[in-house]
Amino acid sequence: MTREEYHAHKAQQERRRQIERRGYEAAKGPLDLPLLLLTLLLDSYCARWHWLSWAGCTLYAATDEIHQLFVAGRTGKWQDVLLDSSGALAGLLLAMFMLWLIRRRRTKKQST
Q: 80-90 pLDDT, tens per residue?
């Protein structure tokens, strides 16, 4: 392999890595949005609904990683499930905080 071929090969590998990274980022965003929407839709005082939405996102992440074991060129990793679950938890906590602020604002308006 000549020097030019080597550098062309390295450049092609870098382009593939960048494409994979962009695809990874694009794939993870849609997973967090349904959690936020589901949490806002299930605006109830019963906390179990919030945690069920987190469990659903975690289950989806796990099945997605299992699915990747059967796709050529992809690998399913438990670390990705942990990362997805953490992102879902962060979204859940953000949504719960937003709901708390909304409720607090409503009670202040009603008391005046």
A: 999 989 988 88
